[in-house]
Amino acid sequence: MLPGNFSSEDWQAIWLTLWTAAFAIVAILPPGMALAWLLARKDWPGKSIVETIVALPLVLPPVATGLILLKLLGRRGPIGGWLYENFGLDIAFTWRAVVIALGVMSFPLLVRSLRTAFEEVPVRLENIASTLGRSPFNVFCTITLPLARRGIAAGLILSFARALGEFGATIMLAGLITGETATLSLSIYQHVQTGNDDQAMKLLTVCLIIAFIALWTSERLSRRRLTP
């Protein structure tokens, strides 16, 4: 019943949100997993500082995080200016900005979830594998990852759900450009601003359904951690 009531712009917002959120989570997974493992298994100078920096997007207003990203990645920013001058690549106010904003805002949640998953893996099992001559990488792939798989999956789904609902950083870095940067959250905001509350509620229903499924799945996986 709902699909027939969506405009082409609304469909664009739905698909844009889904694929940019998925892209963002895939992009932050390798560094997020590496950092989570380091935080869970190693002690090193500056660890508490790194933990604080990673957690900053959780406590800063999303608009503030978006402004920092804009200053860094805009054409006049140090990173964005260099990319534009050397490669003609624009970041701000493009789909790339959406992916970066979603990734940055989801990264702390992903790292925390993966760190918890790694901490729940008994170190004793890793040590036994090491004494049998397995390399650290082999131990990670054959012991740590399999035992942490449900926690990792739960963290990925939770981070994906967080990305779906991102608003503040996205509107600062990517703007609200229909068909290019207008995600579900931005489209809902646009409909409300233009007095189209009915359409906003339909998109809100889509958000609620996706968020509910993601959170329910994440909770189910979290409860079954380390279960054979």
Automatic annotation (TrEMBL):
<protein>
    <recommendedName>
        <fullName>Molybdenum transport system permease</fullName>
    </recommendedName>
</protein>
<keyword id="KW-1003">Cell membrane</keyword>
<dbReference type="GO" id="GO:0005886">
    <property type="term" value="C:plasma membrane"/>
</dbReference>
<keyword id="KW-1133">Transmembrane helix</keyword>
<keyword id="KW-0500">Molybdenum</keyword>
<comment type="function">
    <text>Part of the binding-protein-dependent transport system for molybdenum; probably responsible for the translocation of the substrate across the membrane.</text>
</comment>
<feature type="domain" description="ABC transmembrane type-1">
    <location>
        <begin position="14"/>
        <end position="216"/>
    </location>
</feature>
<dbReference type="InterPro" id="IPR035906">
    <property type="entry name" value="MetI-like_sf"/>
</dbReference>
<feature type="transmembrane region" description="Helical">
    <location>
        <begin position="93"/>
        <end position="111"/>
    </location>
</feature>
<feature type="transmembrane region" description="Helical">
    <location>
        <begin position="52"/>
        <end position="73"/>
    </location>
</feature>
<feature type="transmembrane region" description="Helical">
    <location>
        <begin position="12"/>
        <end position="40"/>
    </location>
</feature>
<dbReference type="Pfam" id="PF00528">
    <property type="entry name" value="BPD_transp_1"/>
</dbReference>
<comment type="similarity">
    <text>Belongs to the binding-protein-dependent transport system permease family. CysTW subfamily.</text>
</comment>
<feature type="transmembrane region" description="Helical">
    <location>
        <begin position="152"/>
        <end position="179"/>
    </location>
</feature>
<dbReference type="InterPro" id="IPR000515">
    <property type="entry name" value="MetI-like"/>
</dbReference>
<dbReference type="InterPro" id="IPR011867">
    <property type="entry name" value="ModB_ABC"/>
</dbReference>
<keyword id="KW-0472">Membrane</keyword>
<dbReference type="GO" id="GO:0015098">
    <property type="term" value="F:molybdate ion transmembrane transporter activity"/>
</dbReference>
<feature type="transmembrane region" description="Helical">
    <location>
        <begin position="199"/>
        <end position="217"/>
    </location>
</feature>
<keyword id="KW-0812">Transmembrane</keyword>
<keyword id="KW-0813">Transport</keyword>
